[in-house]
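[job 4417] fold queue: 2 targets
>>> target A
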Amino acid sequence: MKPDMNQEMIDAIMKQPRKFAREEDGTITIFAMFMVLMMVMIGGIGADMMRHEMERTRIQAVSDRAVLAAADLDQTLDPEAVVRDYFDKSGMAGYVSNVDVDEGLNYRTVTVDASMTMNTQFMDTMGVEELSVPARSRAQEKVNKVEISLVLDISGSMKNNSKMENLQDAASVFIDTVLTPGNRDLISISMIPYSEHVNVGQKIMDQLNVNQVHNFSHCLEMPDTEYSHASLNQGQTYDQMQHFQWNYYSNESGSTRNTRYDTVCPRNWYEEIVPFSQDANDLKNRIDRFKPRAGTSIFLGMKWAVSMLDNSFTTLTGQLSNAGHVDAVFANRPATYGDHETLKTIILMTDGQNDRSYRISDRYYNSDSEYAHWNRYNLQYYLYNSVSSSRRSRYYWRRYTASLGDSLLDNICDAAKVHKMVIWSIGFEVSDHGASVMQNCASSPSHFFRVEGVEISEAFSAIARQINQLRLTQ
């Protein structure tokens, strides 16, 4: 019997492990415990990473602000000191690890590396006791060589609503904004005032082939084919524009008598084209003298603006420089189109739209005595006082219509865009049609400003800021 009892005891003992192995109660609880532990660990990692990102964002924001301020070329303080001061004021004085400043005549680049160490709250249980929080920012302000054609409307309608005064204020602020001491020898402005025509001045006329017949004013007649390309055809012999006043009424004198203030070709020295200048005082002095006169030929102003940025004009600029009319530093302007360090930009402003324009018939304008005659007499005054009504129409003919002017403007704007010139246009209290024409000329809809009253100052200021913009590059 004894062996049987021993066997039974052995069987009983072995039965319990087998039963335990087959038993499934409690297995989910154990798995759940492991899952909860993993969730706590993952949640803890997430919490630490969220804190890490919050700190990184805070340091990055301070870093970005610091380099933007330090890279400003108008900033006279030491750039590195500016960066460190920003961090100090933000309670992060010890976070800056490196400040690199690279600057030259026309640029300043500031790079900052910053970092801090953040103690972890959960990840330290896994052996990660701290995390590094880095930030890096780089800002650059660079004034490339900039060639600006500033095209200003001085037509008769500018006498209304203080438009001329508002333009004078806005254009002067623009000049002061771009022609700063820090930009010296880098930015040039060619100023092209226009009304019904453009006074190129005797200096430029002397460099071209011109059939000059009088010295009363200095405008050139431009063949319509010239608007299909940016260059000025220097092989062309240009006819000089007739000198006469079409309007019976004079804006400057306020009289319908025999006035010759509002000649089709602007005749005063301050209305001449100014080529490649950085003399802010001279430019502003001329602008302050502007008077509203005659009609509006936007396309003529734009043609000269574009041609003076075309590299074929460089020969003329060199000749003007040799004669002392252009700064020697600009003698090789305009730059070639392949010069990626030079920005060519046009600011085209008008308060109206292209208008019709007339010329005296050749048979009444073909001798020295007739040139002198029309310098003495207002055309309309003479016709209404000395010529019978049936014969008056023989004395003149229409050179441009408004629609032809719009077409020529479209052509020359397209020619400028082919060469990647940046065109800003300002419609100053213009009609819907005038706004449409000016917007079509601009490089993009965002390059067009339609403004009223003193808003013109905001437009010029915005353009000036864009020309000399500050960019966060990294």
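>>> target B
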Amino acid sequence: MKKVVTFGEIMLRLAAPGYQRFIQSNNLNATFGGGEANVAVSLSNYGIPTDFVTRLPKNDIAEWCISDLRKYNVGVGNIVRGGDRVGIYFLETGAVARASKVVYDRANSAIADIQPGQINWHEVLKDAQWFHWTGITPALSQGAADACLEAIKVANELGVTVSTDLNYRKNLWKYGKSASEVMPALVEGCDIILGNEEDAEKVFGIKPEGFDVAHTGGEVNAAEFESVCTQLQKHFPRAKKVIITLRGSINANHNTWGGVLYSDKLYQSKRYDITHIVDRVGGGDSFMGGLIYGLISYPTDDQKALEFAVAAS
């Protein structure tokens, strides 16, 4: 089976134990995570060959990170070395009415300083069936955006399926360009688009008439979601499938969760009532991993692929 390649930043995650706040904690639990790396780990757990591509410095923290990826059988042979540091994020898990909190320390990380030409994408993608990236990567720097565009163009040239999770984070776009300026050229090369209604509106100005997700009560309005999906396909005609995740937040420990997929028609998943959330961070990444697995494993059954993705997350 050909591999799935993902590209983006992986960071050191330092989390307060349990539901403690930072100010209460004398210890922090250390792990590694990042959207694209999380997708690679999910797929490896399902038996899909994976390769995670990033840029890491030559130091012991980076070696620790690479060793952690190897534990999950994620390919690390195309990680390029350089730069000064691994990005860090601090996590405080929410409880009931108190939301989770994330504090980033990722400025000038190794991948933020990446430049086009540093990764040989023809070599990386020659044995790949799928390439995945997220909107986090081009938000880091112009160099990261350019490297991402390089990868997408090579993937298109080689006939590799390209997917994206739009994953709009307004606080990351700090280098002088907005998401609406950078993202369209990248998404034009994508076959699969994952996002939510906020991503579509904030990045591309797409919003169906009279729709306000805050007043849906967590229920899927099929016509409204189909409108978002069809508008995205009109903007990006290469996209064969558009997927929207739907999360209803009752409190920090209780969410509803589902999704819709639009290809030839709109498919709706079962809705899950999740009353005891184990780890909110990375839920969308596990959905994406499940979606890629589902679309590879059930290429003629979009409903089954969608149901697998929702259940997997």
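[job 4417] complete. Note on B: The first strand starts at residue 3 and ends at 7.
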